[in-house]
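I hope you will forgive my troubling you with a question about protein structure. Here, with my thanks, is the record as I have it:
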Amino acid sequence: MSQDRFRGVFTIPSTPFDKNGDIDWGDLKQVIDFCVACGAHGIVWPVNASGFPVLTDEERLQGMRVVIEQTAGRIPVVLGVQGVSGHHATMFSRRAQELRADGVIAMAPYVQELEDEGAVVHYYQAIERSGGTHFYSESRTR
């Protein structure tokens, strides 16, 4: 994909939940369509702003598929692949590749702070090696 497609406003849709606390997949599809209709240049999901820490691995994997399918190539999709370890993150990165995401984004492990700079570098290198797409780093506030 041309780097030119990675310009403009990439929206981060919230993850909608129903009254039972389950993801409302129909609402997520509507949110994606709304973002496209409003002129978003791309979609980024799931990351901090979309509430990824409360999602199970299965929900994240299913949501990645839903977002890719609903976007249907109309605008680029960057999928969040952050994990509790390099191994965990690469599982998501490989799935993003299988789904033909336009890019991936990850922040450093979110369960435990990595104090060692080398461990952080190793984490990001593992993600980068697992995919063949554009890779972005997300920072988090303290």
